[in-house]
Amino acid sequence: GKSTTTGHLIYKCGGIDKRTIEKFEKEAAELGKGSFKYAWVLDKLKAERERGITIDIALWKFETPKYHVTVIDAPGHRDFIKNMITGTSQADCGILIIAAGTGEFEAGISKDGQTREHALLAFTLGVRQLIVAINKMDSTKWSEARYNEIVKEVSAFIKKIGFNPKAVPFVPISGWH
């Protein structure tokens, strides 16, 4: 979900053209991974594409009239936490992408979950600006109850580690749509 969201954002911001996305879609479909077309904007390694997970950090730069932006897509998988630390240590602002799907959110926020570990590492590494993107809301039919449940639980957790939840925007998203 993280790489799909990031790749889709880069595409929507004009950082990559339609023809390239169509090429990724075709290549992904050939591997039985048609839904990975946006993730492949950033996931370049053969192993990443075959396994459907981010292994190494990926950088993408673009400019707005006001800012120079470098997007750092970091791995979410526990086996590649060192790479996630490398990416996060360079960040001015972090976007914590949380899956809203039943079971997915619960696994991430559990005692040993990756959501908890990533938020704690981000704060420890000096990230003070945080945005929480609650992803896959389309899979919950944009359930306001589910969104509110996640906001409540994540707010309580990030407050414990040092973030001010009132200063953290929570945004319901679908990385795919």
Account of the protein in words:
The protein has seven helices and five strands. The chain is α/β, with parallel strands linked by helices. The chain has a domain of 87 residues: Rossmann fold. The mean pLDDT is 86.
Q: DSSP helix count?
A: 7
Estimate the helix proportion, in percent. 40-55%
What is the fourth-level CATH superfamily of the domain at 91-177? P-loop containing nucleotide triphosphate hydrolases
Query: What's the shape?
Result: globular
Mean of all residue-level pLDDT scores: 86
* Distance between the amino and carboxyl termini: 12 Å
Strand order of the largest sheet: 3-4-5
Number of strands: 5
Q: What's the CATH architecture of the domain at 91-177?
A: 3-Layer(aba) Sandwich
- The portion of residues forming beta strands comes to 15-25%
Radius of gyration: 16 Å
Poorly predicted regions: none
Structural class: alpha/beta
CATH topology of the domain at 91-177: the name is Rossmann fold
Q: Give the helices and strands as they follow along the chain.
A: HHHEEHEHHEHE
Sheet of most strands: 3 strands, parallel
CATH class placement of the domain at 91-177: Alpha Beta
What are the key terms here?
177 residues, Rossmann fold, 41% helix
